[in-house]
Amino acid sequence: MIHIPNVVKEKARAVRLVVFDVDGVLTDGTLTYSASGEEVKHFNVKDGVGIKLLQTYGIHTAIISAKSSAPLERRAKDLGVEHFFPGTKDKWPCLTDLLGQLSVLPEEVCYVGDDVIDLKVMKRIGLPVAPADAFWMVRDHAALVCESAGGKGVAREVADIILGSRMSLEEAYIKAMLPEFEDVK
C-alpha cells in the first residue's frame, strides 16, 4: 500500500460517507456493447468487498453516476448501496441533498472520481480521491491518488485507507472472514 500522509489519515478518520463515481472508478471506463446493443460493465469483486466493509463499520456508501444502466443498477443492488443516484449530470446538488438527509458535513465525505465532471464535488469535500489513471486535472485536485487504476480495486484501496485510519486492517478484516460476509459479490 502507498504511504498515506498524516493529513490524509486525519481526513480519513473523519469520513462518514464515501461516494463513488462509476465509469473510471468502479469500472475501467471501457464501454462494451453486446451484439444486441446491451451495455456490459465489468466490476471488480475486490471493490465489492471494500464497499461492504465500509458499510459493515457504519460508514455510509453512495454511488453518483452521470450514466444509468441495468448492469450498474444490479451492482448497486447486489452491494446494498443505500444511496444510488444514476443519470446524475450535476453531482453537487445531489450530494448536498444527501448530506442534509444524513446530517453529514462536507468535510466528512470521501468522494472518489476520475474525470472533470467530478471536480465540482471534489473541490468541496474533505477527502477527494482519484484512481491512478484519472484525468490529470482530477489527480491534481485529489488529496490522495490511489495506486490502483479504475476498475482494478480503487474502492478496496479507499476502504483500506479509511478503515486503516481507525484500526489495524487485520482487525477490520475480521468481519470479512465471517460466513455471512461471503454473500458479498
Automatic annotation (TrEMBL):
<dbReference type="InterPro" id="IPR010023">
    <property type="entry name" value="KdsC_fam"/>
</dbReference>
<keyword id="KW-0448">Lipopolysaccharide biosynthesis</keyword>
<comment type="subunit">
    <text>Homotetramer.</text>
</comment>
<dbReference type="InterPro" id="IPR050793">
    <property type="entry name" value="CMP-NeuNAc_synthase"/>
</dbReference>
<keyword id="KW-0378">Hydrolase</keyword>
<dbReference type="InterPro" id="IPR023214">
    <property type="entry name" value="HAD_sf"/>
</dbReference>
<comment type="similarity">
    <text>Belongs to the KdsC family.</text>
</comment>
<dbReference type="InterPro" id="IPR036412">
    <property type="entry name" value="HAD-like_sf"/>
</dbReference>
<dbReference type="GO" id="GO:0016787">
    <property type="term" value="F:hydrolase activity"/>
</dbReference>
<keyword id="KW-0460">Magnesium</keyword>
<protein>
    <recommendedName>
        <fullName>3-deoxy-D-manno-octulosonate 8-phosphate phosphatase KdsC</fullName>
        <ecNumber>3.1.3.45</ecNumber>
    </recommendedName>
</protein>
<dbReference type="InterPro" id="IPR006549">
    <property type="entry name" value="HAD-SF_hydro_IIIA"/>
</dbReference>
<comment type="function">
    <text>Catalyzes the hydrolysis of 3-deoxy-D-manno-octulosonate 8-phosphate (KDO 8-P) to 3-deoxy-D-manno-octulosonate (KDO) and inorganic phosphate.</text>
</comment>
<keyword id="KW-0479">Metal-binding</keyword>
<dbReference type="Pfam" id="PF08282">
    <property type="entry name" value="Hydrolase_3"/>
</dbReference>
